[in-house]
Amino acid sequence: MSDYYLYIIPEDPYYVPSEEQVAQTISLLRETCPEIEIEATTTQEVRFIDPGSNLHTIYCPECRRLLDIAWWQEVMRAKYATGFVDMEVETPCGHRTRLDRLEYAWPAGFARFSITLFNPDCEISGQDIHRISKLLGVDVKTIYAHY
Length: 147
Hints:
Elements: E1 4-10, H1 19-32, E2 37-49, E3 57-59, H2 69-81, E4 88-90, E5 96-98, E6 103-105, E7 109-118, H3 126-136, E8 140-146
Antiparallel strand pairs: 1-7, 1-8, 2-7, 3-6, 4-5
Helix pairs in contact: 1-3
């Protein structure tokens, strides 16, 4: 059986909200999805929040060139070894960018903080995302993962 996760992460990979902000956000999510397991996670280091088997391709955000997965894996290994403290990269097409700015199809991200909804059978609307952003004090994005 497959599992589906919905991750909600800050646009800023290094951002960590206060405990009160997290509690208010989880309360909002429990109103929207009362039967779903919800977990908030904070780590010391930035981690890659992947879409699981949904990840198909990665593009340069500057020229939209398809990036070689072997190049990306090599860069990820090197940046992971340093806790993603520096996410600056030069793409094979010669553009300077950051790992979190690459265009992932399906969306992926990097974060110290995340909220995970496990196998959600509810819908998180754009209005909900806006409310979550306001509660957490930062713009957020969603990542749908399939494992």
